Amino acid sequence: MNANQLISIFDLFGWTNVHSSTITSGLINHTWKIDADQGEFILQRINTNIFASPEKIDANIGMIAAYLEKKSPDYLFTIPVTTIDGNRLVEAPNQVFRAFNYIPNTNTISVVETADQAKEAAQTFASFTKALIDFPIDQLHITLPDFHQLDLRYHQFEKAVQSNNSDRINQSKAIIHALENQKNLVNQFNQYIANKAAYKRVMHHDTKISNILFDERGKGLCVIDLDTVMPGFLFSDVGDMFRTYISPVSEEEQNLDKIEVRKDFVEAIYEGYTSELKDAITQFELDHFYLSGEILIYMQSLRFITDYLQNDVYYGKKYPDHNLVRALNQYRLLELFQASTH
């Protein structure tokens, strides 16, 4: 967007003498740091290509904020500030914006470097779910339908394999066969969500460590990036932490020999999450805690190879076979994780 459009957004919030700097411009939301006479803020443009109904996200955040203010007034929860007209969402042509107060003396972490960080993150995400343990989850909107629905992801994978994209199918025969051999995870997923002891709760669904604000001592203050907050099962948050914390390299790593499972990080996630939730977690969920990691890692490998067979329409690519490499990466992580936890 051009500078005049951005200034018009500033005016709606009543900000004067504004200095803005870009923080991120990634796959999801574009973010700016704002310094104005009225204070410091974070301005975000919501990616409506992914989140088609920003009003549902805003409604969820508003309901959760009201609940926490009543039940846990000391819990730090970020809620968008309002415009001069009292709105939390600002609509521009084909764009939607919101802003948050900037919390000073805080920072985010892009990569988990220590087991202590992994434990702190797990405790922070568990604290969020625990604070909302009695929230009436049926009131929450589903912001990304079927986001972690493994049986649907497997069905999409099967359709992609049947798409007759012969060149790419030939390139990926080995990973396709390997993923098919792990189909029992789909059955375990279906048994998990059907079990009465697997409670539906308020889950974050995107528990990478960059979605936590840390203080200067490295303590987790609160969770952020709340667009994916919706009803879900414990496997979603726990599994995504395993998927993104336990290896020293990311899903982008092309050298599969660099992928490993840091066992102390696995233990840190378990200890951090379960010690915070305590008696709110069921024995069934404890018994299937590590299955959470298998489900999410397997699901991501399926999603990458599905996109590869569909000519990179969702994740895109930076080089030929990018999504094939990503799928192989996640499958290798799955194998190593299974070997370390079974």
**How many DSSP helices?**
12
CATH structural architecture of the largest domain: Alpha-Beta Complex
Averaging pLDDT over every residue, what do you get? Answer: 94
Which overall shape is indicated by the principal axes computed on the Cα atoms? globular
Let me know the CATH homologous superfamily of the largest domain.
Aminoglycoside phosphotransferase (APH), C-terminal lobe
Give, in order, the helices and strands: HEEEHEEEHHHHHEEEEHHHHH
Helix content: 40-55%
Strand content: 5-15%
The assigned structural class equals alpha+beta
CATH class of the largest domain: Alpha Beta
CATH topology tier name of the largest domain: Aminoglycoside 3'-phosphotransferase, Chain: A, domain 2
Compute the separation of the termini in Å. 51 Å
Task: Tell me what you see in this structure.
- It is built from twelve helices and ten strands.
- The longest helix is centred in the C-terminal third of the chain and has 21 residues, at 289-309.
- The protein has a five-stranded antiparallel beta sheet, with helices on one face. Strands 6-8-9 form a three-stranded antiparallel beta sheet. A two-stranded antiparallel sheet has the order 7-10.
- Strand 2 and strand 3 form a beta hairpin.
- The chain is an alpha+beta fold.
- The protein is globular, with a radius of gyration of 21 Å.
- Helix 3 runs parallel beside helix 9.
- It folds into two domains: 3-51 and 80-104, Phosphorylase Kinase, domain 1 (2-Layer Sandwich), CATH 3.30.200; 115-341, Alpha-Beta Complex (Aminoglycoside 3'-phosphotransferase, Chain: A, domain 2).
